[in-house]
Hints:
Blueprint: H1 9-40, H2 44-47, H3 49-71, H4 74-90, H5 92-98, H6 101-128, H7 135-143, H8 146-160, H9 167-189, H10 205-214, H11 216-237, H12 239-247, H13 251-275, H14 281-300, H15 307-320, H16 323-336, H17 344-353, H18 356-371, H19 379-398
Amino acid sequence: MKTIEKKYLLPFALVTSLFLLWGLANNMTDTLLSAFRKIMNMSDTRTAFIQMAFYGAYFCVALPAAMFIRRYSFKSGVILGLALYATGAILFLPAAKAASYTFYLIAIYIMASGCSVLETTANPYIMSMGSAETATRRLNIAQSFNPIGSIAGILMSKYFILQEVSLYSISGTYVSLGIVLVFLMTVMIFSKMPKGHSEGTDSSLLSTFGRLSRNKDYMFGIVAQFFYVGAQIGVWSYTIRIVKEEMKIQEAEASTIYLASVVAFCLSRFVYTWLMKYIKPSKLLLFSGITSTICATAVSQGQHTGWFMIIMLIAISLFMSLMFPTIYGIALGSVVKSKTPTDAKIGASGLIMSILGGALITPLQGYVSDNSNIYTSYLVPAICFFIVLLYSIYTIKRKID
């Protein structure tokens, strides 16, 4: 059975391009913590407000986005997401003129709202382009291009933001991105796209919530996703910070290690996707959970160990890359395979809302850093990875993949 049918190749390619776009936003935002810490002399806890604004928007907007695409179409969701994303990016320019941290947070919130709409739309859209049996593998293929956007975001940050850290270097980079997004939105408006399998529904929103809440496989997936996203964002948000501390170098140099981490993340996701032809996703998730927990714990104890700590930091990204699309695919797959597959759009919004973990767990890690040290703070993602490990054991026992 083909993972991607010929008739879906062009729509699949267009929607997959969106995965690059929010990867770009995610990782450019991660570098803002170090930039604002230097420009405005902030604590780790206060710079984490950036992630609260970004991932808080994911939580607030995901359900309305799901209701929007349920009412209209996947294509409409894509256009709305691109419009919000572009608006938020362009608002960085007046934020620089006002020199207001609050204004920046508002711009970040609007931009992230667009990313939330795109993720809520694109993930189930990709899964709908073919058979349910190959949906998780298809999603992993699309998600494999997300880190490419992440790498581009880090490079843009390294050469346009962190080389000469200022409010205008930040804003100029984001405004340029916004102009590109307007062009892409125009292309999407005039492109012909399939409707998707789950278009329409014959049940009320309340009954949909009731069915989803009774689906234990789906609900545990939301919990696992919450802690995974919190771990990933925490690890990457403080990578430049911990490398700068350990190696005694500046932000631009430290961002090279961050780039290496995301390259490792990107390459390993392609490897994981290939391995899924031979090994069940749940078993790969178990391996990922064990190794990520070990590496994050090693980083937490790695003060003054030099390159050992750096290698363990990069290894976290190498091993954890499987988690998001696999948790998403298994959890939403349990909805798609149920008696009411039309619940998938609302179910998708729940999994995107679980990205709230990035908004809540990152400040917790920042608080631990401010009150102990940056190394000890990596125990926070280690605990999160352990919870994902428990979910993998659950999926293996339940045989739900």
